[in-house]
Design brief:
The protein has a single domain, classed as Factor Xa Inhibitor, CATH 4.10.410.60. 20% of the residues lie in helices and 12% in strands. The chain is built from 2 helices and 3 strands. It has a 3-stranded antiparallel β-sheet. The two termini are 19 Å apart.
Length: 64
């Protein structure tokens, strides 16, 4: 059986936590952030846990 190819774009954007959850960077961090409240800016700093319905994305990054 040949090895499965990793989707490189997916592997750069998504991490798998030790418990198997998918983590992604929060969106909207590049510019126009001064208009956001402090609460929103603070929440953008942490990684987001993707919903469990997106677990099919794990097949795109098999060796991570």
């Amino acid at each position: 059986m040949p090895k499965v190819k990793t989707h490189k774009g997916m592997s750069k954007r998504i991490k798998v936590s030790p418990k198997g959850k998918l983590l992604a960077r929060a969106t909207g961090q590049s510019h126009f952030n001064s208009r956001d409240s402090g609460k929103v800016t603070k929440n953008k700093r942490r990684d987001l846990v993707l919903h469990k319905t997106n677990n099919h994305l794990k097949t795109r990054i098999p060796y991570k």
